[in-house]
Recover the amino acids of this structure.
């Protein structure tokens, strides 16, 4: 872990975080990891961010009872200061306006127009602070016929098409196993904020970033979205198979499953040699990727027949020996406890003195900088724990309504 005197890429940047759940907090955690001071505003009427109560897994307090640090909340809220502010009150609104005056970035995920009644919308704040960057995240965006519909990850995955591509060919549409629409929206938000900062630093001009879960999800349909736009044909659910590469799938072995990803004709020929699939690489039905796509079912069946009697370890040894991409299918425990994960700092421990274990383990940031490394400065905060500290930092005098 880098020392506190190590420079960070976003040192000095102040982010006012009015978001909750996952998309916005993902973006602000990334900014915090890179050095920004992130002030997370939480609602005292609800006990803070909704995900604080999204169990069943919580960090336990010293008395053995669950704290408000749910695993879900901790996944996206380190490197932040938590303050308790009620936006429905004049005092709370004044506090947020004061913070906005000192902030470089405001990020919020209220329903479109939801902050106008408090005078905390983009137009109002930027009129007072022309250099302010204001990022709004919503389910469908600030415009369009669905702008007022609520946005949740599941709804975005359904509306945006990814569920129609996910799952077994003969099964129902399936969501991705984590809130990927939220997470990717947070990634796009981070990129947009950094780009807007570049513009602001060059011109002094702030701007509004309008980002929706559904827009972001459709953007990462990637090749399948473009496949449809190019051909007019609807993509099919193929389980673990690839629409444009064969064989590229999960295969059953004698004691489990492995992944096989043959990316070109030379790899396919080496794979056939390694498993005594005589003549397949030379056959007109399989000697090119296009031919293999056209004869997908036949080829996949032949490979499955050969691999089902061989152990996973043996299959991987043979593939790696001839430089054919293949790999294991890990459980979460196997992935996070692997030697690769340990070497790369995939899991980080952060001290939390008021919890039973005195620390929590979190997923680390994957970015590796040579000059401005990520730092884990603050563990996920308890609700409102930094209210007084932030008021002192930003010269705020608490007012009573």
């Amino acid at each position: 872990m880098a020392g506190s005197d190590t420079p960070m890429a976003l040192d000095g940047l102040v982010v006012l975080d009015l978001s909750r759940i996952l998309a916005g907090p993902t973006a602000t955690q990334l900014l915090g990891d890179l050095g920004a001071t992130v002030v997370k505003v939480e609602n005292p009427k609800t006990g803070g961010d909704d995900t604080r109560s999204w169990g069943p897994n919580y960090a336990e307090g010293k008395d053995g009872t669950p704290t408000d640090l749910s695993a879900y909340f901790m996944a996206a809220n380190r490197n932040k200061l938590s303050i308790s502010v009620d936006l429905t009150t004049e005092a709370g609104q004044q506090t947020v306006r004061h913070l906005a005056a000192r902030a470089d970035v405001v990020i919020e995920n209220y329903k479109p127009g939801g902050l106008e009644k408090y005078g905390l919308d983009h137009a109002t704040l930027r009129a007072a602070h022309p250099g302010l960057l204001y990022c709004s995240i919503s389910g469908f965006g600030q415009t369009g016929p669905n702008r007022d519909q609520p946005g949740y990850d599941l709804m975005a995955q359904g509306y945006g098409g990814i569920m129609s591509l996910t799952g077994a060919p003969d099964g129902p549409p399936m969501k991705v196993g984590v809130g990927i629409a939220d997470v990717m929206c947070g990634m796009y938000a981070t990129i947009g904020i950094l780009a807007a900062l570049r513009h602001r630093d060059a011109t002094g001009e702030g701007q509004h970033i309008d980002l929706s879960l559904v827009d972001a999800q459709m953007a990462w349909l990637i090749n399948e979205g473009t496949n449809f736009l190019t051909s007019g044909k609807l993509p099919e659910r193929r389980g673990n198979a690839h629409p444009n590469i064969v064989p590229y799938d999960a295969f059953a072995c004698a004691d489990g499953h492995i992944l096989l990803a043959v990316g070109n004709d030379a790899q396919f020929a080496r794979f056939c040699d390694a498993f005594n699939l005589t003549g397949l690489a030379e056959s007109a039905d399989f000697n090119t990727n296009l031919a293999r796509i056209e004869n997908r079912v036949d080829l996949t069946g032949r490979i499955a027949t050969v691999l089902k009697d061989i152990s996973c370890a043996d299959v991987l040894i043979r593939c790696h020996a001839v430089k054919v991409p293949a790999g294991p299918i890990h459980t979460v425990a196997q992935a996070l406890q692997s030697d690769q994960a340990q070497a790369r700092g995939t899991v980080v421990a952060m001290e939390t003195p008021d919890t039973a274990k005195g620390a929590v383990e979190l997923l680390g940031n994957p970015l590796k900088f040579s000059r401005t490394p990520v730092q884990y400065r603050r563990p996920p905060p308890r609700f409102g724990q930094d209210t007084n500290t932030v008021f002192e930092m930003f010269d705020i005098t608490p007012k009573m309504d």
Observations:
- The chain has a mean pLDDT of 96.
- The chain has two domains: 14-220+339-393, 263-324.
